[in-house]
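Supplementary Note 2. Why include the ligand at all?

Several targets in our set were suspected to adopt different conformations when bound, so apo predictions alone were not considered sufficient. For every target with a known small-molecule partner we therefore ran a joint prediction. The input for flavin-adenine dinucleotide is given below.
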Amino acid sequence: MIYDVIILGAGPGGYVAAIKAAQMGGRVALIEKEDIGGVCLNWGCIPTKALLKSARLFEEVKKSDFFGIEGIDQSKIRVNWEQMNIRKDAVVKRLVNGVSNLLKRNGVEVFQGTGKVLDKATVSVAGQIIKGKNLIIATGSRAVMPPIEGIEEAVKTGIAITSKEALALKSLPEAIVILGGGVIAVEFATLFNALGSKVTLVQRSARILTNIERELAEGLQRHLVDKGVNIVTNSQIKRIQGKSAVLEVEGQEKICYGDKILVSLGRKPNTEGLEVLGLQMDKNGIQTNEKLETNIPGVYAVGDVNGKYQLAHLASAEGITAVENIFGQENKINYDIVPSCIYSFPEIATVGLTEQEARKQGYDVAVSKFPLSANGKALAEGESIGFVKIVAEKQYGEILGVHIMAVHATDMISEAIVSMQMEGTVYDVAQAIHPHPTLSEIMMEAAHGAIHKPIHH
Amino acid sequence: MIYDVIILGAGPGGYVAAIKAAQMGGRVALIEKEDIGGVCLNWGCIPTKALLKSARLFEEVKKSDFFGIEGIDQSKIRVNWEQMNIRKDAVVKRLVNGVSNLLKRNGVEVFQGTGKVLDKATVSVAGQIIKGKNLIIATGSRAVMPPIEGIEEAVKTGIAITSKEALALKSLPEAIVILGGGVIAVEFATLFNALGSKVTLVQRSARILTNIERELAEGLQRHLVDKGVNIVTNSQIKRIQGKSAVLEVEGQEKICYGDKILVSLGRKPNTEGLEVLGLQMDKNGIQTNEKLETNIPGVYAVGDVNGKYQLAHLASAEGITAVENIFGQENKINYDIVPSCIYSFPEIATVGLTEQEARKQGYDVAVSKFPLSANGKALAEGESIGFVKIVAEKQYGEILGVHIMAVHATDMISEAIVSMQMEGTVYDVAQAIHPHPTLSEIMMEAAHGAIHKPIHH
Amino acid sequence: IPQKVLATPVARKMAYDLGLDIRTIKGTGPGGRIMKEDIRRAGESNEKKPAAVAVQETPG
Ligand SMILES: Cc1cc2nc3c(=O)[nH]c(=O)nc-3n(C[C@H](O)[C@H](O)[C@H](O)COP(=O)(O)OP(=O)(O)OC[C@H]3O[C@@H](n4cnc5c(N)ncnc54)[C@H](O)[C@@H]3O)c2cc1C
Ligand SMILES: Cc1cc2nc3c(=O)[nH]c(=O)nc-3n(C[C@H](O)[C@H](O)[C@H](O)COP(=O)(O)OP(=O)(O)OC[C@H]3O[C@@H](n4cnc5c(N)ncnc54)[C@H](O)[C@@H]3O)c2cc1C
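The joint prediction is reproduced in token form.
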């Protein structure tokens, strides 16, 4: 039998593409060498959020007196890392089983094993040869281990770890060094700091989250420092030595100690076994057009492997879009409206252009900011750190970007996304009656501010 | 001096109108007989949400073992009602002060005292006579005490109370009877039940929340019962006798005991002192057109007093709209897109038409439902009760209503509101890339379901 | 820069179905956005003026 689509990799790019293709009536083969769900479900998005939920509750429990809950002996409460992980693993298992069932119910044929591409219509897996009319590569990415002196030794001894091992630690580290200041690094810093580990975060540049709007990144950095994270910026990693990372900071040597050293210095695309195809690649991954097609007709690449962003929701959207194009329903991704979330305390969520980017693109820019501290719900919840920043252009008032730091920022951003999807303006958002009391009123206030003035500020 | 606008009442209708009018360059007089902020800030939206935050944390603390937090002796944790209220009062005070400062900074003149309208251009307050070109009535509403046998006596002894007294109780009642099954009744049932009071909720009709989409209301009702609330439906209140409400249920007498009996059987408009104007009224309140003008030109009525809905955000939106119309910027409220929220556990939020209403209006209706239990974030948070239901019409896919039961429903609804404000379709919501993992993915999945099929179900 | 047309998704689809040139319609929504009501009105006045030529406009 010849499949309509062969999909390599069952992460959120691949498995969603598989379900969509089956829903559209296609015969689908899905090949996965490890676990259904990919990094996202097994070693990424989901397990980190499950642990972060526990960590956040731990922080809340410490404030229980203030909220009028008595009888907790603060000197006695402790983290039960094992139980946290048992719950986390149960969540992962349930979701992975759910996806497996969905694949089955939709009639997707799943092949367990490493897929090797023989030609664009032929893949071998576990001794079988399968044939298809189209190929979607969704092989994802893996953590990079840069050539730092001593790192190989440290990996062998189990001191240097990646996020994957960090999610399978037998015990909570007393002290941990995190190399890197990207989203994953910041989420682990949030997690371990909240759970009581001594966290040192080592960042090459002058601030963490260099891809995120400056004010948000700087705000969160200050907040993490306030909460006890030791953030070392402008530093170069010289070597790893025993349980220490040796840095150079402003010409001085600095030694950071950790039971574990979490290496979070980037991820690289999984492109092994694809060589025969002769795909065009750059250092980020396989090059694709807006239809997600590679230079080889009929071969698509979605998710982390195409190196555009490393976001599960984008991987899924790309998977759907590739399938739609395969089945003749032309569609493309609008890369200007891809949200990014950070599940720190408070959270960060952002979509679209920053103020600087908008100006660089030549827009006449209106910027409006509104703080949580002037919002009733934020105060009622005791969560008043953060703000919403709207970047709009002045001619029509069209919203170009929204940048949020708030306890529920990752929930709040969806309003911005659909607004931008529909080419919404600050007039539309200001006119929409937002319920009271909610954090979403801040969006409305910021929109009022971009037009004229907010009410509550 | 003659004011451009005189505003009677400084609740969310009146004070927001005052700020807006001042921002538009008007000279504004604002008259308030009690506290700036009205019911909403002092006795409504804000204090209830502050207490509910404590109650929710109390529930979470009880689950701390499951989430991997050890060392809490569950037999020792107790509610410190006094501290909960101290925090609540501090939140209210901060917000009221904030609004007072805003009024001052915007140059609004505030008059303390009961305003009495002498004619449509003249109001007396605390011995002063003030003159204005326009009048906005924003006097709000108050709880009804229906003529139930024994209720007057029970009010005197402090057993029968309204929500206002419930927010000023010296101690947590061991048992409380709540008469009524509307939003306020349900929020207090949630609160007292979570804090450990024995709660009986007495409802005339067959279910609580008769104004809310049936499936949501029934779902929440079941959930409240599961959590221990005694809900008595189809009941008639015969009399109040000592600390008991005597009911008739299916021909049988039934006695419900409570240290307090919270009477939550509706609210009525505050229209005293307006008699001279000859305003057109119905049993709900002062009649207004879509510009919020009454039958008397130059006299507007906004918020609870016009009896449309009893919602703070609508009061504010109406206040702004009345002011815009006064200053010649024609605008009107779209009453089809007014959200309603209930801060129960889980929350409920809804906007627009229900399935039944849409059918009745003659639409060819598409309905799509997606459960929290199939959403990764919901599982990671351990909060998987609820669903999102989208009601759309089939010709264009326009979204007519969205009904949500979910832990953060009140945050999630804003996406639905702006979508409906922009006459958005399920195609737009499905195409918008929603971040993973968030509850907002459920909106996207439900939109996919309204078109064809959701991915994850 | 070509003039952008602010219109709601439903308004665009309706204009397309009715064969109306969306660029000629005045929007009454927030910020001048063309709402379905504006298209409906334009459609009705078009019916009254049978001489008017309908121009097709693709959505987007
Ligand atoms: C710690 C961490 C937290 C994260 N948190 C978030 C988050 O909160 N939100 C977010 O949007 N993103 C998050 N990400 C990123 C997200 O996990 C990725 O963007 C997403 O998993 C990419 O999906 P994918 O389908 O492209 O690849 P992957 O999820 O990497 O899946 C690829 C799959 O292909 C399989 N495979 C590879 N080669 C072959 C082969 N030759 N044959 C067979 N199978 C093969 C792999 O085993 C794997 O299962 C996180 C990442 C990490 C590491
Ligand atoms: C317990 C409770 C919880 C609630 N929770 C929510 C919620 O979560 N969300 C929501 O949207 N709504 C909620 N509401 C409803 C909300 O409080 C009202 O819809 C809102 O307050 C109405 O605003 P308003 O400005 O019309 O009137 P009000 O807030 O009632 O303000 C009217 C003001 O006018 C003053 N006044 C009256 N007559 C005169 C006079 N003659 N002279 C001078 N001053 C006068 C009053 O003292 C009062 O301060 C809740 C209500 C209650 C009771």
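The helical segments of chain C are 9-18, 36-48. Residues 36-48 of chain C form the longest helix (13 residues). Comparable summaries for the other entries are listed in the accompanying table.
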